[in-house]
């Protein structure tokens, strides 16, 4: 019994001794293979990194230099800015859809950016005023090649502004169309009808049309019985270029008339308080607004209300805005002051 137990213990000991070297050998082989595998993967990853760096260098033309930390940070910054730009473009598209921003301007500049004009001058006229228009053409507006030269050399565009007849296609419209064929200096507002009740809206329609068709620093409204000295006007406007939102004119106020029999009756008289006096606004004979204000009118055209008079109407739009009201005495056309840029006929 004892010899058999001893024999079993000896056999078990011999088997353990035999398996131990085999296990160690197997573990060593597995460790070696794992080492080769890991080393291979690291080598492959290293080769991939070298390839990527070389490819980046080849594409950016920097030779065999590696991408530095600064370059990486710049790439990240660019990507973040691109994300912000994409988000802003999305917001812009949404704003356009809701009508807060004009969908597009009609200004076409091709591949080269066209130099911005100094001013677009709209001479507000109406049917039966051809003598006034001809007098202005002879006195200060010029015609033909001289008008084009004024645009090219001084950056000033001048056009008469008129609407449609209440009787579409009648003799009055045909006369204007024929006149414009000869002079090519009239803006015909297709969405404006020449009626007394629509007069306060006419400057708005001009500013909308002008802002859609020309990119200018200023937009100027002038009546067709006003004579303008172009060079001094250009000087006055140039002196206001540092103000992004400016409303230039001969500032005035005046009584609000509540009596319907009065020529200057104001239906909304009650809005102006017990004093019955209009707020400060530029005289309607001639005034100018900056580019930002013209685009404000263009964008918000559908919600800008009108009062009885065109000058009060325009002035009302800027009361609640951060706008510089420039009281320019040289725009007081009826006063015939020294150095005035305009004079009433």
UniProtKB/TrEMBL annotation:
<keyword id="KW-0328">Glycosyltransferase</keyword>
<comment type="similarity">
    <text>Belongs to the glycosyltransferase 31 family.</text>
</comment>
<protein>
    <recommendedName>
        <fullName>Hexosyltransferase</fullName>
        <ecNumber>2.4.1.-</ecNumber>
    </recommendedName>
</protein>
<keyword id="KW-0464">Manganese</keyword>
<dbReference type="Pfam" id="PF01762">
    <property type="entry name" value="Galactosyl_T"/>
</dbReference>
<dbReference type="GO" id="GO:0008378">
    <property type="term" value="F:galactosyltransferase activity"/>
</dbReference>
<dbReference type="InterPro" id="IPR002659">
    <property type="entry name" value="Glyco_trans_31"/>
</dbReference>
<keyword id="KW-1133">Transmembrane helix</keyword>
<keyword id="KW-0808">Transferase</keyword>
<comment type="pathway">
    <text>Protein modification; protein glycosylation.</text>
</comment>
<keyword id="KW-0812">Transmembrane</keyword>
<dbReference type="GO" id="GO:0000139">
    <property type="term" value="C:Golgi membrane"/>
</dbReference>
<keyword id="KW-0472">Membrane</keyword>
<keyword id="KW-0735">Signal-anchor</keyword>
<keyword id="KW-0333">Golgi apparatus</keyword>
């Amino acid at each position: 019994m004892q010899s058999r137990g001893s024999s079993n213990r000896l056999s078990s000991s011999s088997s353990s001794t035999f398996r131990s070297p085999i296990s160690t050998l197997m573990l060593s082989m597995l460790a070696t293979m794992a080492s080769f595998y890991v080393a291979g993967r690291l080598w492959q990853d290293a080769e991939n990194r070298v390839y990527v760096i070389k490819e980046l260098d080849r594409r950016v033309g920097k030779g065999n230099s590696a991408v530095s930390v600064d370059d990486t940070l710049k790439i990240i910054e660019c990507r973040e800015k691109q994300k912000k730009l994409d988000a802003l473009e999305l917001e812009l598209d949404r704003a356009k859809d809701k009508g807060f921003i004009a969908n597009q301007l009609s200004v076409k500049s091709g591949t080269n950016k066209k130099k911005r004009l100094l001013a677009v001058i709209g001479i507000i006229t109406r049917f039966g005023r051809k003598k006034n228009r001809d007098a202005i053409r002879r006195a200060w507006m010029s015609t033909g090649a001289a008008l084009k030269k004024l645009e090219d050399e001084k950056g000033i565009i001048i056009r008469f502004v008129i609407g449609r007849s209440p009787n579409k296609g009648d003799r009055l419209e045909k006369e204007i169309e024929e006149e414009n064929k000869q002079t090519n200096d009239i803006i015909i507002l297709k969405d404006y009808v020449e009626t007394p009740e629509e007069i306060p809206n006419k400057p708005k329609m001009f500013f909308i049309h002008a802002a859609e068709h020309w990119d200018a620093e200023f937009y100027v409204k002038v009546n067709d019985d006003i004579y303008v000295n172009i060079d001094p006007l250009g000087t006055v406007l140039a002196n206001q270029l540092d103000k992004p939102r400016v409303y230039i004119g001969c500032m005035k106020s005046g009584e609000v008339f509540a009596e319907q029999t009065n020529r200057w009756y104001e239906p909304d008289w009650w809005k102006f308080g017990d004093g019955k006096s209009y707020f400060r606004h530029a005289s309607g004979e001639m005034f100018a607004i900056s580019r930002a204000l013209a685009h404000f009118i263009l964008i918000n055209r559908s919600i800008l209300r009108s009062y009885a008079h065109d000058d009060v109407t325009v002035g009302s739009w800027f009361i609640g805005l951060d706008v510089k009201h420039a009281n320019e005495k040289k725009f007081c056309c009826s006063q015939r002051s020294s150095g005035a840029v305009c004079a009433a006929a």
